[in-house]
Amino acid sequence: MATRWGICGAGNISHDFCVALRTLSHEDHQIAAVAARSLESAEKFAKTHGIPKAYGSYQELVKDPNIDVVYIGVLHTHHLQVGLLFLNAGKNVLCEKPFAMNLREVRQLISAACENNVFLMEAVWSRCFPVYAEVGRLLSESAVGEVKMVKAYFGLSLLDRERITQKEQGGGGLMLIGMYCLQFALMVFKGERPESIHATGVLLPSGVDESMVVVLKFSGNRMAVCACSIACDLPNDATICGSKGMIRVGHPMHCPTVLELNGKKTEFPLPEPGLPLNFPNSTGLRYEAEEVRRCLLKGDAPFNLLL
């Protein structure tokens, strides 16, 4: 039986997610409904993506019994309110990153998932890419020996975009792109808690972070250096340095299609999109959709943290 998706939000990322879903088998994934803050927006989105039902409120999507999981693609600052709406109604949820605006809100979402015994996953799509799976395999085989240093850089020139520079709209470099660097380091070190964290950064007049550099020290004198910026372009790649070699995840490191092991490249091509995309490599969103389906079929509730 196909996993029936409900789409919450009719913005750019929801568009790309639906395009990605269309690259998967219709027998496994179907888009059953979309909800937006206005019926006009929902109907326009539904027409673009061939979705049978369009709702002019999120509450209507909550009441639809023919939805297996809801994809939340609304503004960051609304993740808590909208997430709780669906979780408390007994709906499984894939919520765009960042999960919420702070730890307190994240704990509320996780508690709601546990209390209602439903599935909840943060859409850190990077973790589901074949390149990341290959990185995990290489590390498990000690392909570069003992890991000593991890470097991850991600920067884009985005200061002309109001949503990204305003605190009230969930802006800031760390929330938007810096988390990709940190999650990569934590993945390499298997979710281990750092022994120390040293960070410095620059704030915009609005109060959100423009640029940041953080150094994480892990047990066994292992280090990670992460840098992000919304003021300038950075290499947008990641490197794992070991005692016997190096793994490099190519640009863009958050949705990669190229992996290098000691200079030898391997490519992992993505399927072509059926419609124009808003963000690079967005057909790769298909991988997190497949992970959600795998978890639901396996019964991985109440949540999947992808540590």
From TrEMBL:
EC number: 1.1.1.179, 1.3.1.20
Oxidoreductase as UniProt keyword: yes
Catalytic reaction list: D-xylose + NADP(+) = D-xylono-1,5-lactone + NADPH + H(+); (1R,2R)-1,2-dihydrobenzene-1,2-diol + NADP(+) = catechol + NADPH + H(+)
Residues of the GFO/IDH/MocA-like oxidoreductase domain: 132-248
Keyword Oxidoreductase among UniProt keywords: yes
InterPro entries in UniProt: Gfo/Idh/MocA-like_OxRdtase_N, Gfo/Idh/MocA_domain, GFO_IDH_MocA-like_dom, NAD(P)-bd_dom_sf
Organism superkingdom: Eukaryota
GO molecular function, one term: nucleotide binding
EC class: oxidoreductase
Keywords associated with the record: Oxidoreductase
Entry-linked Gene3D superfamilies: Dihydrodipicolinate Reductase, domain 2, NAD(P)-binding Rossmann-like Domain
Domain Gfo/Idh/MocA-like oxidoreductase N-terminal: 4-121
UniProt family annotation: Belongs to the Gfo/Idh/MocA family.
Protein name: Trans-1,2-dihydrobenzene-1,2-diol dehydrogenase
Organism name: Cyprinus carpio carpio
